[in-house]
Design goal:
Number of helices: 12
Largest sheet: none
Radius of gyration: 18 Å
Order of helices and strands: HHHHHHHHHHHH
Number of domains: 1
Low-confidence stretches: none
């Protein structure tokens, strides 16, 4: 698939994710603090939260299709384009006014995604047979890191704010979900259906859902902007590292394309932070105030 078609699909994915999050955020704001199974069941029983999950799931399906032709090390960086779409829609329908720095961020994210597209080689999405040891190491480190973040966020004198910890955990777990999704696609490519669906499919569901619940928990401890910015920043760093280490996704070999890749990644990553108030979570808050 042409990289530009993949970018268009991933942009569609990011937009659907943000719409789904608008719906989930409105539910999370009305519920008591999510703790244990009871809190999770309260979310699941909400039709609006489940509808948001379905829309997000449809977006994930499009994302999975795009991952067939796109390295995970750059796919999440491309999802920053969803902020641009939501920012523009917010100016039209919610009468948001973009500040000068936010217009610069819109241009920077767009330029970053274009540079990433220009840096991509036709064969770079091809992945050799997986090394199970690297997948296990990657997953184990991610789980331990998530556990430590939650541990250090407990108590009144915690070293890390719970909102920050749970948002980062959401990004880390979602990154592992992306890794396992790509691993499943690779196993299907090599016709290893039994291993792919028996080993990877259940883990994909577990990691993605855990990431969703961690983000919902983060919403209840801090502002929507801080939660989504930290989560998105973490997942983009996480998938870049996991793609290169666990899947062997190579950086462009020539200097020009390497510079384009790095510049595009940095632009998309850093400028998207400035567009945090145009995330689905923040738009949901704006809609709540206007209602």
């Amino acid at each position: 698939m042409n990289i530009w078609i993949a970018i268009a699909l991933i942009t569609l994915t990011a937009t659907s994710w943000e719409v789904g999050v608008v719906m989930q955020k409105k539910v999370a704001d009305k519920l008591p603090l999510i703790k244990g199974l009871k809190g999770i069941l309260a979310l699941i029983r909400s039709p609006l939260w489940m509808a948001g999950l379905v829309i997000t799931g449809i977006g994930w399906g499009v994302y999975v299709y795009a991952l067939n032709f796109t390295p995970i090390s750059i796919a999440r960086a491309i999802t920053a384009s969803g902020y641009v779409i939501l920012a523009l829609l917010s100016t039209i329908f919610l009468k948001h006014r973009l500040k000068a720095v936010e217009w610069i961020a819109v241009l920077a994210v767009t330029s970053g995604v274009v540079l990433i597209g220009l840096s991509e080689r036709h064969d770079s999405a091809l992945v050799p047979r997986l090394k199970l040891s690297k997948l296990i190491i990657s997953g184990s480190i991610s789980i331990v890191l998530s556990f430590l973040l939650v541990l250090f966020s407990r108590g009144d004198n915690s070293k890390i704010k719970p909102a920050v910890a749970f948002a980062a955990v959401s990004g880390i777990l979602s990154g592992v979900g992306d890794l396992l999704t790509k691993a499943l696609l690779v196993e299907i490519q090599f016709k290893s259906y039994f291993i792919g669906f028996l080993a990877f499919a259940p883990l994909i569901i577990i990691f993605y859902l855990a990431g969703f619940f961690a983000l919902s928990r983060s919403y209840q401890h801090g502002t929507a902007v801080s939660s989504v910015v930290i989560s998105d920043f973490t997942v983009r760093i996480s998938t870049a590292a996991l793609g290169i280490y666990a899947l062997g996704e190579a950086l462009p070999p020539d200097t020009l394309h390497l510079i384009l890749r790095i510049a595009g990644f940095v632009l998309a990553l850093s400028a998207s932070v400035l567009l945090g108030r145009f995330s689905g979570e923040e738009v949901a808050g704006k809609m709540k105030k206007n209602s």
